[in-house]
Design a protein that fits this description.
The protein is α/β, with parallel strands linked by helices. The protein has a single domain, classed as Creatininase (Rossmann fold, 3-Layer(aba) Sandwich), CATH 3.40.50.10310. 35% of the residues lie in helices and 9% in strands. The chain is built from ten helices and seven strands. Strands 1-3-2-4-5 form a five-stranded parallel beta sheet, sandwiched between helices. The protein has a two-stranded antiparallel ribbon with strand order 6-7. A hairpin with a 2-residue loop joins strand 6 and strand 7. Helix 2 crosses helix 10, helix 3 packs parallel to helix 4 and helix 7 crosses helix 10. The longest helix has 23 residues. It is globular. The relative contact order is 0.16.
């Protein structure tokens, strides 16, 4: 058996594996690294394990939350003391319960999880930020923040949401019509060749339908997943679902669930999705979270045990 090497450098692991980065993955750190390093903000991604149509993986929301959190925390100098925790990958997804594969712990249980997580995190970090990728988690996050703040803990939330269409689209200034975007980028107080579904190459891109920000497993999420994990996207299975605006179908969704409204689980239309569009959307989400991080860190000092 070869002798163990003692030459490996100590210290936390950067989120993107690059040297000199100041944002770190908590999961791969050792406790002495955490104790010795600066601690200003713990970032916790939240997602879900729920159906995303026949063409996207069940963990789509969690993957997007992790990707945006990692990019935002690792993308700018001066992020010393920011740590990215493993995601809470199962959330509140009762509206998708009729689809096999969906697993939900519900709003009440998720609230309790977030509260206990916030309480313990405050032993070692002066502030915590939830990075949420699933609209169904919003009520639990709001309730958890209300309680944690009442206890004097500095806890915040940022919710993923698309605010405008890509530059190539004829439409601009479109808001995502569900809870994922209702508080996009805001604090929760009370509350190559491009491959796409239409085909490949320039002619196919020109023929793509106008960009419409949809609610679930449509063009927005399909484009983002094509950018993040193209091998996990089954474009041959992608098909439109219920395309009416969310306010028109919300009573049915709440009363009978997503499968009653859209048998294939899609709220929107994946047609026109592309990896290039997904990268643009990711850049917008990352910029929004980056702005939030900058604001929080401007008023957050390093952890001092004497303060707790």
């Amino acid at each position: 058996m070869p002798a163990a090497s003692h030459s490996a450098p100590a210290g936390p692991t950067p989120t993107d594996g690059a040297s000199g980065n100041s944002a770190f993955r908590l999961a791969t750190a050792r406790w002495p690294d955490v104790e010795a390093g600066p601690r200003r903000l713990l970032v916790v991604p939240l997602g879900s394990l729920e159906q995303h149509g026949p063409h996207l993986p069940l963990d789509t929301d969690a993957r997007i939350a992790v990707a945006v959190a990692t990019r935002a925390c690792a993308g700018r100098a001066g992020r010393a003391g920011v740590w990215v925790a493993p995601p809470i990958a199962i959330g509140a997804s009762g509206e998708h319960a009729d689809f096999p594969g969906t697993i939900s712990i519900g709003t009440e249980a998720l609230t309790l999880v977030l509260v206990e997580l916030g309480r313990h995190a405050s032993l070692h970090w002066p502030a915590m930020l939830f990075v949420n990728g699933h609209g169904g988690n919003v009520p639990a996050i709001n309730e958890a923040l209300k309680l944690l703040r009442a206890e004097g803990r500095r806890c915040h939330a940022w919710h993923a949401g698309v605010r405008s269409a890509p530059p190539s689209s004829a439409e601009t200034d479109v808001g995502w019509p569900d809870a994922d975007a209702a508080t996009a980028g805001r604090e929760t107080d009370e509350t190559g060749a491009e491959t796409d579904i239409a085909g490949t190459g320039t002619a196919a891109r020109d023929a793509r339908p106008p960009f419409v920000v949809d609610a679930h497993a449509g063009r927005v999420e399909t484009s983002i997943m094509l950018a993040l994990a193209p091998h996990d996207v089954r474009l041959e299975l992608a098909a439109p679902g219920e395309t009416r605006a969310l306010p028109a179908i919300m009573p049915e969704l709440r009363a009978r669930g997503t499968r009653h409204v859209s048998p294939n689980g899609v709220l929107g239309d994946p047609a026109g999705a592309s990896a290039a569009e997904g990268e643009w959307l990711l850049a917008q989400l990352t910029a929004s979270l980056d702005e939030k991080l900058t604001s929080l860190l401007s008023t957050t000092n390093d952890f001092d045990p004497a303060d707790f």
